[in-house]
Amino acid sequence: MELRQLEYFAAVARHRHFTRAAESLYVTQPALSQQVRRLEAELGLALFRRTSKGVELTPAGADLLVHAEKILAEVAQARAEMDRHTGVSRGVVRVATTAADAPRLPAALAAFHGDHPHIQIALRQGSAAEVVALVQAGAVDVAVLALTEPPAGLEVVPLADEPLRVVVPVDDELAGTTIALDQLRGRPFILAEPGTALRDTVLQATQEAGFSPLPLFEVGDPATVRFLVREGLGVGLVPASWLERPGPVVGAADLADPPRHRLSLLTPSAGASPAGRLLLERLAEL
């Protein structure tokens, strides 16, 4: 019986699903299934019963889960104590974010890797709802996300906010100027996807300016937004940081009274791993 087998078994028991358990551990589903089958073969017992919705524990599986959780908790505590001796020089840290909230994240992760080369970094992108669910499930140590409202059961650290800027084609008459938001009335908009904080901020600002934008495109990836704007397919209101990175060349206009956009760091209520706490300190500088 190997520690990895117990970790995989406990993940399947927690998620009641092999695929979701594999995703939470950042391993392939066949690899996870193989380890669980080996554990069952070694014990000579079936630990799970397949159902139409996933799996459920057998009586033997339920008994083993009690012991597995105790063992894994002891191992986690031992690793944490050893990390205090080694200065957290090893381990794994799992991060989640959306495409829209990630422009500065790759550089921050690269710098963290340079300082801590023996800490493995795993990054996952998803929708805002998926990112929150990953943190709530304890599948990631930290998430970077703009919030529409504080999610339940998570620790939230707000980061510095930034203004939204108007992104337009480079030869647009508004490029390089400062405008009032209502000057964009009637122009096609490229908006972030529904359910995102950026979209909510833009819609609130335009409604306060007396109009509702026509969303011809709903896109969260900064490079895609810039490409569509460059080709004259619409204008957008985007965080200023989106224009700091390399990408399709576009023009930009400032707003006289710009809406603000704020990212937050999310961690499980039980706390991040030692390596996760170390990364959290670095990401607080975003």
From TrEMBL:
Taxonomic source organism: Solirubrobacter pauli
Domain of life: Bacteria
GO molecular function, a single term: DNA binding
Pfam family, one: HTH_1
Positions of the HTH lysR-type domain: 1-58
Record keywords: DNA-binding, Transcription, Transcription regulation
Family affiliation: Belongs to the LysR transcriptional regulatory family.
GO CC annotation: protein-DNA complex
InterPro entries: LysR_HTH_N, LysR_subst-bd, WH-like_DNA-bd_sf, WH_DNA-bd_sf
PANTHER family the UniProt entry points to: LYSR SUBSTRATE-BINDING, TRANSCRIPTIONAL DUAL REGULATOR HCAR-RELATED
Protein name, as recorded: DNA-binding transcriptional LysR family regulator
